[in-house]
Amino acid sequence: MISYQLLGLILIPLIGSIFALTARNDKNYSTSNVYNVSILTLIANIGLILHIFTQCNLNEDGMQLIEHFKWIDYPFVEICLGVDIFALLIILSVNLSFLIGELCLNRNTERSKTLITSELLFIGLLNGYFVAADVLSFYIFFVASGTPLMILISTYGSQRKKTVLIRFSLYNLIGALLLLVSILMMYDSQSRNILLSEAGKLNFKGGTEYFVWLSIFFAFISRLPIWPFHYWISSINSSLKNPLVFLVGNLIPLIGLYGFIRFWPNTVPETIAIHAPIFEIICIVTMLFIALVSLSHKDIRYKLFAYTTVYYLLYLTSIFLPTDVLKLNIGYSLFSYIIIITVLSFLISHIEYQKKELGIYGTGGILCYMPRTSKFLSLFILAGIGLPVTSLFWNNFIIISEIFNYNLVLGIMVMLSVFIVALSLLEELYKLKDKSNASSACVLGADLSNLHFTVYLGCLLVLFLSFFKPLWFIF
């Protein structure tokens, strides 16, 4: 009997997106209804994810809970969905992050229907990408997952949105075309849709092998904040102030990272894998450059972008090590990392909103008005840069130790990048808490609401529990 649970992870958000899109146009009713639909959809999806966890063997590697669906008889095309513990961790953290965002989002946001519809569409496509087990469905979700961000850039972008949209569309098109050619060549060699796990067993020779795998390689790079493709995500972060859109933009690189995790190191032929050190050098140079720029940059959103970039490239560098034993450690780190950047982006948005409402145009002392915001921003920044009571600290320690064991110089450069970006965030925290420029008046209503306080406190609890047992929610 075919299980439809993995298919449900895709369909539930997509159905929720349709409900949000067809909500009544009455402003007051529509806004409330759209948000309620979104929250219920995310809760249902998280419940399904936790149920799937209980059916998986936590000590078993490889795909579990595989589902096959026949699509076309001639040519014969069968879609395969599958999931492992790593993918489930990422899916859970992504869905949790958007639930956190929904609960903490300012409901007076303009064009809420477009925002929530695009968000749910993005979640459904992202879930599909993480559970795709064959090359065709993997490609379809890879290409489609960029569409919601294009819609959001068009809707919420600044005056430079045309430039940002063109740049992202161009990179997305390049990656899509390269991956499509590779998929077609794989299909031509087997006359059938193959599983991701079989890709490395295909017998390509000479220049064909290099073309196929380098095309796949550059397709994934186009979604990552690495030179020369890092400009699109820095442009998005500087032009989009809505925290939910900011979150979507910062999760797009996860698509490229996950692609490398699915194809490296076991699937890629040895003739291609020997060139990995060249890419590692590019990663390190990008990390150092962005970390150094963040020290002199005044915008706290750029500093958060620098933080996310450095950590994405840290995980990417560890993937290219000649071992796959770090895969679950990367998964545990990413689980905490995604929650941390979600909370930080919404706390920063809250501070920016209150600065605008209170007419405060300097950064100095803004947190002196908001003790709750001050405490949470301090704690989550400390958690993000390595507070020793979160799973992010422990698993990053293991990952960086393996990098040092592999190459001492590489390890030093990674540590230096992480240290610089941490210093950049701490410097901004000091500016926001500096009392020398703060008014002596106490502004009421500027701090976090009780709902937001409860949500962020729950996030801290999740991070704390993850330190002792990353899969603590499985009994």
Structural features, described:
Strands 1-2 form a two-stranded antiparallel ribbon. The model has no long low-confidence stretch (mean pLDDT 81). It has 18 helices and two strands. It has 475 residues and is mainly alpha-helical. The protein has a domain of 201 residues. Strand 1 and strand 2 form a beta hairpin. Helix 1 runs antiparallel to helix 4 and helix 13 packs antiparallel against helix 17.
Number of helices: 18
- Overall mean pLDDT stands at 81
Oligomer: single chain
For the secondary structure, the number of strands is: 2
Radius of gyration: 22 Å
Helix content: over 70%
- Into which percentage range does the β-strand content fall? under 5%
- Give the low-confidence spans: none
Largest sheet: 2 strands, antiparallel
What structural class should be given to the helix and strand makeup? mainly alpha
- How do the helices and strands follow one another from N- to C-terminus? HHEEHHHHHHHHHHHHHHHH
General form:
globular
Distance from N terminus to C terminus (CA atoms, Å) equals 26 Å
Strand order of the largest sheet: 1-2
Q: What is the topology?
A:
Elements: H1 5-21, H2 27-54, E1 64-72, E2 77-83, H3 85-104, H4 112-131, H5 135-144, H6 147-156, H7 161-190, H8 206-221, H9 231-239, H10 243-263, H11 270-273, H12 276-296, H13 300-319, H14 327-358, H15 371-385, H16 391-406, H17 408-433, H18 450-468
Antiparallel strand pairs: 1-2
